[in-house]
Amino acid sequence: MNSKIDLMKYVADKEDIDPESFIIADYVYSGRENWIKLGAKIAAEQSTGTWVEVAGERDIVERHGARVFDGDFNGRQGKLRIAFPVENLNPRDGIPMLLSTIAGNLFGMKVVEKIRLEDVHIPNSYMKAFNGPKYGIEGLRKIIGSEGRPHIGTIIKPDVGLPPDVFAEYCYEAAIGGVDFIKDDELLGDPAHSPRFERLNRVMEALDRVREETGRTVLYALNITTRMSKIVEVAEKAKEEGANCVMINAVTLGLSSIRAVSETVDIPIHVHRDMHAAFTRDKSHGISMLVLAKLIRLVGGDQLHTGAVGKMQGNVKEIQEINHFLRSEWYGLKTTMPVASGGIHPSLVPANLDAFGIDIVLQAGGGIMAHPMGIRAGARAMVQAMEASLKGISLREYAKNHEELKVALNTFG
Ligand code: CAP
Ligand code: MG
After folding, report:
1. Residue 388 Cα, ligand 1 centroid: separation in angstroms?
2. Residue 191: phi, psi to the nearest 5?
3. Of 87, 110, 120, 356, whose Cβ has the fewest other Cβ atoms within 10 Å?
4. Pocket of ligand 1 contains residue 305 by CB under 6 Å
5. Among 41, 151, 272, 276, the one annotated catalytic
6. Structurally, how many domains does the chain consist of?
């Protein structure tokens, strides 16, 4: 950056930052630059500056320049906080422009060695343009008719390849076995072997049978992930065809897709986060899952995968922090129901409930679909593991009177 412009124009004292007028982003970094100099360079690049001073910059930096205003540095690692003028953004442009501002070029700047966006604080003046989740934990519990327990979910496996009639039969078995929630795998969209709306019709017929036979409503999240220009049309058609929930692969499609659907169609939105680990996993460079969770709640995600004690990489403390945020009061927005998924089976139910509490979807794909006694038994085993955990009874003890659980424990360990 040309030293002619005084980099100090992009530095402020904490006292000068009115949280109501700025979007504040918290970063951690590693490198050799002191936090003030590095922060100023990033603030410039992410607002009114570039590598060389340009005409007019001095006149507008006061009003439109981002500012680093806090931080520390130990010679190798550091933290910095940057305030971005909220008036640089129009909330109607939403998440794409917000991410370009707080998580754009900065990741590729030569002066940056490694940096991670850890958290973002959004003022009400920006937030009020967003509706947040339509349903949230309370709304989902009302549909299912649950209280005081987690929801049990499953993912129909094999992930892809099943014809709609077989897929729907598996849904029937899982639902009769006691799951509250069934989803398509993130890999199942609208392939020739399973046309999305034929699959939807078959599954909803099966779940209607379950409601007639048991009185229970079971949610089925149809994966509507498609190209951006079609997402609302597909969501509208899903609702018209009787869907009671839809799923969006939000990272691959783009977070704004959730807002587009949420603002147009009255239906719970289950958010899959595949590809997130490309930038959330490395704790030294990328974007935290907490930031992703905040933005997904903001745009209307009713359920969100946040991690589990299971097969996927994840830090329990970090997951607890994210789940706490999703369930907490935030500018009056409804909550988002966390989903614990990925390698879960009955033996892992106690550990997940101990770690994450009951306001959660405990989701098992293989952990239900691979049960030796069949899918219905697999669902029953998950429900029995939940019942035992909530009663404070050991799974082995409970399994003495519950065959499906006993077989699951012996099979999955
Ligand atoms: C789980 C799952 C989900 C993972 C995603 C899978 O299936 O369908 O995609 O939960 O991970 O394909 O792995 P299993 P996360 O229950 O058979 O593992 O929830 O961490 O986003
Ligand atoms: Mg999957």
Report:
1. 24
2. -75, 165
3. 110
4. yes
5. 272
6. 2
Strand-pairing partners, residue 337, are: 303
User: Cβ–Cβ contacts within 10 Å for residue 372, how many?
Assistant: 12
181 and 96 part of one domain:
no
**pLDDT at position 120:** 98
| Amino acid (1-letter code) at residue 24 | I
| Residue 5 pLDDT grade (very low, low, confident, very high; cuts 50, 70, 90) | low
The position carrying tokens 């109607």 is: 92
Q: At what angle do helices 231-240 and 196-214 cross, to 10 degrees?
A: 40
Neighbours of 192 (CB within 10 A): 5
pLDDT tens figures, 286-316: 999 999 999 999 999 999 999 999 988 889 9
pTM for this entry: 0.97
pLDDT by residue (tens digit) across 97-144?
999 999 999 999 999 999 999 999 999 999 999 999 999 999 999 999
Ligand 1 neighbour 312 (Cβ under 6 A): yes
Choose the final residue of a domain: 99, 127, 155. 127
What does the mean pLDDT of the chain come to? 96
Of the CA atoms within 13 Å of residue 143, those in its CB half-sphere come to: 18
Strand order in the sheet with 286-287: 67-73, 77-85, 22-30, 114-121, 286-287
CA-closest residue to ligand 1 atom 5: 342
CA of 64 to the centre of ligand 1 (A): 43
Closest Cα to atom 6 of ligand 1: 342
DSSP secondary structure of 107-159: GG-TT-SEEEEEEEE--HHHHTT----SSHHHHHHHHHT--SSPEEEEE-SSS
Question: Is residue 2 a part of any domain in this protein?
Answer: no
Residue 142 known to be catalytic: no
347 alpha carbon – ligand 2 mean position (Å): 20
400 counts as catalytic: no
Any domain includes 403: yes
- Strand ranges, E, within 294-345: 303-305, 337-341
By the 8 A CB rule, do 412 and 367 touch? yes
Q: Which domain holds residue 78?
A: 7-127
